[in-house]
Please model this.
Amino acid sequence: MGTSSSRQLTNERSLGEGTFGKVYKVTEGDQSFALKIFNFNTTGDKKEAELLKSLDHINIVKVDAVGFVTQPTDSHFSLWGSPQSFSKLCILLEFCDSDLKTKLDKKASVDTDWSLNMAKQMLTGLIYMHGKGVMHR
Model:
């Protein structure tokens, strides 16, 4: 993504917010993403986001882009490669239809095989991250 051009993302809906920022479901053409917009902009945060982008493992949500967004206009975000006036640091992530909590809430009972499979997947991703020098917080 060049610094003088931007990607246009359509804001579909808010997915939630927390201490670090807000997350939106956005689309670009027919592809869906999760857009996490941070409440702060520091050099360290951008470096951390770029590090996450370098991870490539089946059990880790993929980061498509790291950049800066301006506030939405007409339900769109402009994603830039470099800071713009009034922009905030963001990461554009692979969109997942569900999360572990939702899966657990939907299951009437959690059997041992399912639990072991979930634990194995999480630990496999965690071991990969640790092997790359990345600690999960």
